[in-house]
Amino acid sequence: MNPLQSLGHITLNILSDIGKIFLFTISVISNTFRAPFYIKEVFTQFLNIGYFSLPVVGLTTIFTGGALTLQIYSGGARFNAEAVVPQIVAIGMVRELGPVLVGLMIAARVTSSIAAEIATMKVTEQLDALKTLSTDPIKYLVVPRVLAGIVTVPVLVGIGNTIGILGGYLVATKTLGFNWASYLQSTVDFLEMSDIISSLVKGSVFGGIATLMGCYFGINSGRGARGVGNATKSSVETAAILILATNFLLTGVFF
Fold it and tell me: For an engineered disulfide with 168, which of 55, 65, 67, 234 has Cβ 3.0 to 4.6 Å away?
């Protein structure tokens, strides 16, 4: 019976965690529309989550766009279909690679940072200090970060898509001999507004997931240095898995 008991414990723990995350999400949503509103904190998080993430997003997407161009050209050459490179690079970056890569980079950079910051505040009893000052930690710490993630990550996705396509353009025109005008024209003609909208919607959802998981595991972290480390690790793992699973679901919905 031991294997069955272990499986039962694991299942119950997973269901318990799902329930806690669901209740935490409901609490965040309800607090978003109730005063007071910490506008300054929201704009601070715009900088931390959005602006300061631009370098890693730009480097990740430009190299991915270049590598994708080389791979598609190599595969297309087997069927004399090299001309489809601009179209597939554009649709691949905008529909899938751009949102997913940006979401995972945000999970690696922002989710870990938020979880470590809030978990450290809990260990040093700063969260308790906020409560004694009649300040709700969810309204003051969580809501601004989640709002900033929902708003800024789609912007990062749009920038990442553009830079990724630019990386493919540079490789195609400088290395593979494509005409620059026809490459750009093929890219513009092939992309549809639905592709761009779906990409931005994914970015918004991924931003909400990444920031929400960082806040959840930070507030519910254990005590001590080990608790901070475990919260940081669990937040990134959960955010990455949820982003990939949600991407699959949203792709099915849109396409």
Answer: 65
Contact 157, 102 (CB under 8 A): yes
Q: For residues 243 and 249, give the distance between their C-alpha atoms in angstroms, rounded to a whole number.
A: 10
Angle value at C-alpha 111, between 67 and 129, nearest 5 degrees: 165
Residue 1 has a pLDDT of 58
What is the rounded CA–CA span in Å between residue 105 and residue 139?
A: 25
192 phi-psi bin (left φ>0, alpha ψ -120 to 50, beta other): beta
Q: What is the C-alpha separation between 142 and 195, in angstroms, rounded?
A: 31
Q: How far is 57 from 98, CA to CA, in rounded Å?
A: 9
Q: Each residue of 129-162: b (16+ CB within 10 Å) or e?
A: ebeeeeeebbbbbbbbbbbbbbbbbbbbbbbbbb
- The residues, any chain, with a CB within 8 Å of residue 85's CB and separated by 6 or more, are 69, 72, 73, 76, 168, 172, 176, 178
Give me the amino acid identity at 95: R
Residues 128-159: pLDDT tens digits?
888 888 888 899 899 999 999 999 999 999 99
Residue 6 has pLDDT above 90, yes or no: no
Query: What's the distance, Cα to Cα, between the start and end of the chain in Å?
Result: 45
Question: Do 111 and 236 form a contact (C-beta atoms < 8 A)?
Answer: yes
Domain ranges (residues) in the chain: 39-254
Biggest alpha carbon distance in the chain? 70
Tell me which amino acid residue 133 is. L
Alpha carbons within 13 angstroms on the beta-carbon side of residue 28 total 22
